[in-house]
Amino acid sequence: MKRRPSRRRRQRSPLRAFRTAGLFGALAIAAAIGLEPARFESILPGIVSSLPSSVREMLPATAKNDVPRPVALVGMVRPMPLCGSGRRISCVVDGDTFWVSGEKIRLEGIDAPEIKGACAYERDLAQRATRRLSELLSGQNFALQRRGTDRYGRTLARAVTPIGEAGDILVREGLARPWRGRKEQWCS
Question: Cys staple from 32: which of 72, 91, 119, 140, with CB 3.0 to 4.6 Å?
Fold first, then answer.
């Protein structure tokens, strides 16, 4: 009687499993801060392609026109009060700027009136826009679509809430207007 060779399944090295978990963790962190797999791959060539296909399928895809998809919800449901004079962690500065977890965010694609505007109309509208942005971001999860930084070092982003993109809502409600590449006057 001939003995059949046993088919032993090749055991994976614990080191390989650890490496895969580490790579996946690094990619998860990169996704949470808005760095897409394609960009991560350009920084560390081969890292995404070395992951198992089952893990690669879970990563967010790069959207057309290089517009990132919302990849992570911003923390937990939290109040987003108006900023005071103290340390700014999570609060609303004005109708197009807010802080979340210590990161200063400027809403991309809109121009909101200034709190210290040139006339009473602009200052009043700025107060209303600021309160409305606080309402939109308070008490619910929202996703940030980060798009780089502006000349002041603020993160440019779109804040996507369950009822829509915050900047679009402010424009639709007349509390901001689409950004046309330069500041426009609110006072006539």
Answer: 72
Q: Are residues 95 and 157 in the same domain?
A: yes
- What would the pLDDT profile of 139-161 be if each residue is shown by its tens digit? 888 889 998 999 999 999 999 98
- What is the 8-class DSSP label of residue 124? H
**How many Cβ atoms sit within 10 Å of the Cβ of residue 158?**
22
User: Of 64, 82, 105, which residue constitutes the final position of a domain?
Assistant: 64
Structure tokens at 160: 């996507």
The closest alpha carbon to 39, from 59, 17, 19, belongs to: 59
Residue 39 reports pLDDT greater than 90: no
Contacts of residue 102, defined as CB under 8 A and 6 or more positions apart, other chains included, come to: 88, 89
39 with 115, same domain: the answer is: no
Task: Give which of 55, 51, 52, 79 is closest to 137, Cα–Cα.
Answer: 79
Co-location of 100 and 140 in the same domain: yes
What is the rounded distance in angstroms from the CA atom of residue 96 to the CA atom of residue 112?
6
The tokens describing 44, both together, are 């560390």
